[in-house]
Amino acid sequence: MTYELDFLPVGENTKSGDAILFRFWDSANGETVEDQKICLIDGGYSENGKKIEEHMNKYYGTNKIDLVISTHPDLDHIGGLSYILENLEVKELWMHTPWNMTDGLSDCFKDGRITDNSLANRLKEGLDKACNLEKIAKEKGVNICNPFTGLSAFGGVIRVLSPTEDFYKELLKEFRCTPEPVTEEALSFADKIVAELKKIIAKWGIDNLEKNPETTAENNSSVVLLISADDKQLLLTADAGVSALANAADEIEKLGFSSNCASYVQVPHHGSKHNVNTEILNRLIGTCVDKNSEPTKNGAVSICVEDDGKHPSKAVLNAFKQRGVDICKTKGSKLWHHSKDAPAREDYSTAQPYDFFEVLEVEA
After folding, report:
1. pLDDT tens per residue, range 247-298
2. Which residue has the higher pLDDT, 75 or 147?
3. At what angle are helices 128-140 and 116-126 packed, to 10 degrees?
């Protein structure tokens, strides 16, 4: 199998996002537009839709997409997908439609006036971009599937690792557009006191990560994907946090792989420190390697052009680096990962991975 994985630059200034294209074809048949299969994972902001189309026309020679996957409804991931559905030929859309799965969910909220129907309407209003995407897809006759664990495409080339339907419904109670749940809500990041920062010297083999980091329910609802291509495993994590990534690791093992089988990994949530800890990285990537050993894996982090001071966290990048993973950044540029027999692109140059950061800023 010949394959290409393109991380497109998303966002300007300090706004990060995701727009990822994956295409493959049977190498034995040669490269033809008719034989290739194309999948788009997220579409960045609204202005990125046209850029995705331009990339496909230039490098793929087509405006047809076999599968579009919306990992979660944040605007930096879903914004450009309406343009894609309206202007390109899309066969299938994977996206969560929570307003269609509210039966019995109203009992989970403190306000007794909430009904399943009113909850569905609240979700439609709060997730209006996603709801509009469903509307466009229906108008265009595009098949829609809710991407839960076990769903696969192209004979198992692409598999959903997380979320399960039950896990998603639990997260749904904590979405920002839903009422207050019966259980006590965790403090939002905006409500937490920002700690002072201090500089420390980083030591190889020691993770400077939070033990129990927390991210939003929306982020944990992200579709986590495993792509099996050319005897390799590629792991795409979107904005998933520790609990979602643990579910993904469980599913990888159920499929008969080692949980750290992926040779190419997307750093979750643009390198946020709120999405990974030592335990989950040990499971998904492996434990720390000798400092002098050669990297055995590669990966990407989608980040904005200007430094926003949070993404990516140097501690997170170090944690990947000391596990033998070379991470490259978008930061306004395209990243291209591919099999050895992929067609050459003369206008591309070799991306430079991050070095290990000797000095870190951490919360005091």
Report:
1. 999 999 999 999 999 999 999 999 999 999 999 999 999 999 999 999 999 9
2. 147
3. 90
Question: Cα separation of 201 and 359, whole Å?
Answer: 5
- For residue 305, the one-letter residue type is V
Per-residue H/E/C for the chain: CEEEEEECCCCCCCCCCCCEEEEEECHHHCCCCCCCEEEEECCCCCCHHHHHHHHHHHHHCCCEEEEEECCCCCHHHHCCHHHHHHHCEEEEEECCCHHHCCCCHHHHECCCCCCHHHHHHHHHHHCHHHHHHHHHHHHHCCEEECCCCCCEEHHHCEEEEECCHHHHHHHHCCCCCCCCECCCCCCCHHHCCCCCEEEEECCCCCCCCCCCCCCCHHHHCCCEEEEEECCEEEEECCCCCHHHHHHHHHHHHHCCCCCCCCCEEECHHHHCCCCCCHHHHHHHCCCCCCCCCCCCEEEEECCCCCCCCCCCCHHHHHHHHCCCEEEEECCCCCEEEECCCCCCCCCCCCCCCCCCCCEEEEEC
* Predicted TM-score (pTM) above 0.70: yes
Calculate the average pLDDT of the chain. Answer: 89
